[in-house]
Amino acid sequence: MTNRTDVSYNGITLENCLTKMWDETAVYDQESETDVVYHKVRLTVSCLVHDVVGSGPVGTFPQVGNSIVDFFSYIKAQLMETRKPFAYSVGGVPLVSLQGPGAYVANADVNNGPKPIDVKLVGVTPKLFKIEFTIELALVDCNNDTNTQGVLSNRWSMMDSYDTNWFCNRTVRGRLRIATLNLNAQSFRSWVVPPLQSGFKREAMHFTTSTDGLTLEYIITDRQVFASCPMPGTSWTCDHSESTNDGASSVSEIAIHLEGPPNSNKKALVALGAQIAESVLQINRYSTDDKVEQIGFVDHMHDSTVDVLLRLRRTSTPEYFTAIGAAIGSPLSLPGYDPKVSAEPTDIDLASPAGLFMCYLQTPCDDNHKIGNSTSITSPGGIAELRNTVPLVTMSQGTLVRTLAPDWSSEQQRAMYTEYLVDSKYKTHAMTLALPIAASSSGPSNGVTTRATVSLAPPQTTRTIKITAERFGDWPEIPDLLTTYEDPTGRAVLVGRGEVNLQSPVLSVDGQNRIYSATQTLVYSLPRAPTLAEMRAVPVPWMKPEPSDVALTTTAVLTGGVGL
Q1: Which of 2, 201, 312, 353 could disulfide-link to 342, CB 3.0 to 4.6 Å?
Q2: What is the mean pLDDT of residues 375-391?
Q3: CA-based nearest residue to 226, from 254, 200, 202, 203
Q4: DSSP H stretches of helix in 244-361
């Protein structure tokens, strides 16, 4: 017959069928029921099948078995398998042609089908039987179908909420529906991530593949920030304080905590922290006005985070509120930095192997039901091009600014001093007594002198030197027990006893190296009282000696080493 209806499914062709039902309904998106996602068709056909292939009007099928029972059993099993190629034609003209899972094509069943519903045996004779076959189809019914990517729908909502300080938290929720499980829903993350708005930070992203593998559910959360983290960091805290407790100097402190993505360059984060610290504190390197009291770097090796600490002591002014407060609240100034622009994940950052573990198509006829048994996943064509690009970072690339070599002595480089305190105290006794003048003890003095002074001898001066020293790896150097030495005032003589206390070495926390400690006290009598220019400090052995280290003027000349 020229207008006969034929149905072909899973290798079975049923010829000259009667179409008993064609029920087609539009299926809208799950969330809003706004967009048509696909059409669902429930089709029932009735066909006669002879036991002899080719005797018409009959259905054709592979010759299997020797009886009507064998034929029906085989046909029923073939027709009831899910997700097999389907065709429906009238007069030889295809009206519907759908494919099961395979490489994405425009005529794929878009709901993990085709899905057979039932096969009914409604009549049997020795040579003939009649069956009714019902199947559910899901198809995109368009006159002009230009869909080449396989995305059927993507709808989302946006919510803005504000905290007590009026900062906005923006949440985007949505569902993206793909046509076939042979596409990876997770590959379309870049389709659902909105551009990051100025002044916002990407706080969190959640991507969930539905159990049927056809829907990507997503939640994107952005948070408004006062100042974005300088790149290549992604999150940060920065605490800057200015204080004074004496009016003569002020203390500037900054503590920076930087976080980065999983592939962070830790050296770049540390260098960025150093740049931020110097920019905020406006450090004048190697200036006597800026005394660096502490520098610290912390590498949290279990995570992509680092900490940078810096404390300075600076000369202050009487207008302490103005001088100290001037540095507080100033914006960060770094090359290429924009406080309104935060790092945004690129398509590469969004890539994930999650699609390899999505729930795959299964059948009760085999043992493939374990997580991870899915075959290789193919990405949809045409989306390899990155929508987002990696931002140009003009700041730190991982190199700290070079610091001049410290002014350490060779002994300090050989074995480190952990403590060396020296107290050089000059004490002058005037050798003068104040004696009372005998007079009546009653009544006021009425302006009459009541004491007389007696000079017993010229003033006597002693110099007491106290040293407390600790060294890692060797005994600390201390001055020799000299009974005399040449002082600017003349020959100084040791009086009383010179004391040296050597403490027993102890192991350091590494259990290998030793820590050595010693104290020394020396008291010398000087031939006369010194002037300020003749007073001397004892040089510490861990620094290279300079004349200004030991004298109140720059006229003194040292020979180096530890001496008096």
Answers
A1: 201
A2: 38
A3: 200
A4: 266-281, 320-325, 347-350
